[in-house]
UniProtKB/TrEMBL annotation:
The keyword Phosphoprotein applies. It comes from Christiangramia sediminis. This is Response regulator. The keyword Phosphoprotein applies. PANTHER family: RESPONSE REGULATORY DOMAIN-CONTAINING PROTEIN, STRESS RESPONSE REGULATOR PROTEIN 1. One of its GO terms (biological process) is phosphorelay signal transduction system. The modification 4-aspartylphosphate is found at D55. InterPro entries: Bact_response_regulator, CheY-like_superfamily, Sig_transdc_resp-reg_receiver. The lineage of its organism: Bacteria, Pseudomonadati, Bacteroidota, Flavobacteriia, Flavobacteriales. Pfam families: Response_reg. Residues 6-122 form the Response regulatory domain.
Amino acid sequence: MAQEQKILIIDDDPGIGDMMQLVLQFNGYDIIVSEKPDEAEDIILTHQVDLIILDMLISGINGTDVCKRLRDNEDPEIANTPILMMSALHDAVKKCKKAGANDFLSKPFEVDDLLLKVKELLED
């Protein structure tokens, strides 16, 4: 099991963010939760984040735009950090992959699905 790997969760729904934080911390991950996608780059550099879990719609901001911005960043530590995007929209998978997401998780999701995707992305 991965230990001390840092995961940044960017989601403006406190219920989802808190639930993911509890589940992932229980499974040995170090979690940072932010409701502000504009802080992503600073958090990644400050905390050496290993994975980003990003909601597709955050406080009116399109998560795919955030994903593209991260992928286009000149700093390889930011541009190469794996991104798992989430959405309740059934047609979001292609948009998220096109934006540069490594994987996608449909909302609502099963905890086992979240843990499997996190493990797979951190092992790559």
